[in-house]
Each structure stands twice: as C-alpha cells, then as structure tokens.
Design goal:
There is one protein chain. By secondary structure, the chain is of the alpha/beta class. The protein has two domains: 119 residues, Rossmann fold; 95 residues, Orthogonal Bundle (Arc Repressor Mutant, subunit A), CATH 1.10.10.10. The protein contains eight helices and twelve strands. The strands form three sheets. The chain has a five-stranded parallel β-sheet, sandwiched between helices. Strands 6-7-8-9 form a four-stranded antiparallel β-sheet, with helices on one face. Strands 10-12-11 form a three-stranded antiparallel β-sheet. A hairpin with a 3-residue loop joins strand 11 and strand 12. Helix 6 packs across helix 8. The longest helix has 15 residues. It is elongated. The two termini are 27 Å apart. It is found in: Cytoplasm. This protein is a positive regulator for the phosphate regulon. Transcription of this operon is positively regulated by PhoB and PhoR when phosphate is limited. This is Phosphate regulon transcriptional regulatory protein PhoB.
C-alpha cells in the first residue's frame, strides 16, 4: 500500500496520543489536530490519504466538517472514518449519510482500528488497485487474499497469511516474539509468545514444500528474520 498519511482529529489529548502511537506502530505517517481548525491548517500543509475524525469536537463538529469536505472537490475523495462514543444505529446512519466512509465506536481495539483503516483505504480510488508483494518467488496479493509460490497457489490460515504478509513487507530485519505478537496478533491480544513459534513452524512447513523454508531464519536469543539471503 506504500506510505499512508493519516490525519487524526481528536480533542482529548490522551486519546489523540494513543491513536498516534497505534497508527505509527502500524507504519502510517500521522498528523494530529485537536479541532477542525487545526486540522484544516495541517491539510493545507500535507494532504492526507485518510482522516480519522472524532464526531464531537469544540467549535465546528467533526460530522459537520466531514459534510463540508465531501462537498469540496479538492477534498471530496479523502476517505473519512468517524470515531465516536455514539453507538446508536440512527447516529451511525447519519454519520454515513453526512459523508463518512466508515464508523468506529469507542471503545475499540487497536487491531480493529488498523484493520478498518486498511479496509477503507483499499476501497479508495488511490489505493484500490491490486497490490502484489513479492520476495524470493513468494507473491502475496493483498486485495484477493491470495498467495502463490513459484506461481503455484498456496493455502494459508488467516494467521499464517498475516504472518507471511508482515514478513514480506519487513524483510531482512530481526523481530522478537513479542514484536511479532504486537504486529500480527495485535497489542490487545492475550496470546503467549510460544504461539508465535507454533505458527512459525506451520509456515515453515508450507514453505518447505516449495524449498523456501530457509527464508524464515531463527536468530538465537533474539527472534526471527525473513530473508532470501540464506
């Protein structure tokens, strides 16, 4: 998907900082504003690929700003995800009618938030094209959720797919088990680190069927590296 610039508009400092940390960990570029006036200034400096927008803001409300942006040709194509404590169906429908592309209700998990953002980006005109990630003859097609090795289709579980996608997009770097847990399973997950080893073994077994098991390398005392350099 490449570098993605996300504008976070949230008036509560703690939530704004938390959102920034979660999105930066997911490798998004993040710009933050406490209200729509600050957000407009930031947009003039750096055009965002997506706006994460709180419903209730001081001054001009988030929902009203979203409505104005969608009417402005310069900004109408920017996807907007509304972030709000409002959980009623009527409010959700109103938010979508006013121009929001999606709607996430507090409280939410970081993993859900990142997944929603990526899903909205895939539907947008800028990122909607099929993305093919390839390394060492392994090709992953993100929009089709499909993997091939040397042009042969491979069947993976959802977790194996996410693990392989992370490895393919972060080659030649060493990651600890806890880092892999955060990136693949999500920070809110209560899974033991040994679960990582189980899924690594499963993924290695699949790669071994195509003579590529050595691409997952154990770095003793640290964790795992994915590389075509053996």
């Amino acid at each position: 998907m490449g570098a993605v610039n996300v504008l976070v508009v949230e008036d509560e400092d703690a939530i704004r900082e938390m959102l920034g940390m979660v999105l930066e960990q997911a490798e998004f570029t993040v710009h933050s504003a406490a209200d729509t006036q600050q957000a407009q200034v930031l947009m003039n400096e750096s055009f965002p690929d997506l706006i994460l927008l709180d419903w209730m803001l001081p001054g001009l409300s988030g929902i009203e700003w979203a409505r104005r942006l969608k009417k402005d040709k310069a900004y109408s194509d920017i996807p907007i995800i509304m972030l709000t404590a409002r959980g009623e169906e009527e409010d959700k429908i109103r938010g979508l009618d006013f121009g929001a592309d999606d709607y996430i209700t507090k409280p939410f998990s970081p993993r859900e938030l990142v997944a929603r953002i990526r899903a909205v980006l895939r539907r947008s005109s800028k990122f909607g094209k099929s993305e093919r990630i390839e390394l060492g003859g392994i090709a992953l097609y993100t929009d089709e959720h499909r993997v091939t090795i040397a042009d042969h289709p491979v069947v993976l579980s959802p977790t194996e797919y996410r693990l392989l996608e992370f490895f393919l997009t972060h080659p030649d770097k060493v990651y600890s088990r806890s880092q892999l847990l955060d990136q693949v399973w999500g920070r809110s997950s209560f899974i033991e680190e040994r679960t990582v080893d189980v899924h690594i073994r499963r993924l290695r077994k699949i790669l071994a069927e195509h003579d590529r098991e050595e691409m997952i390398q154990t770095v003793r005392g640290f964790g795992y590296r994915f590389s075509e350099q053996v």
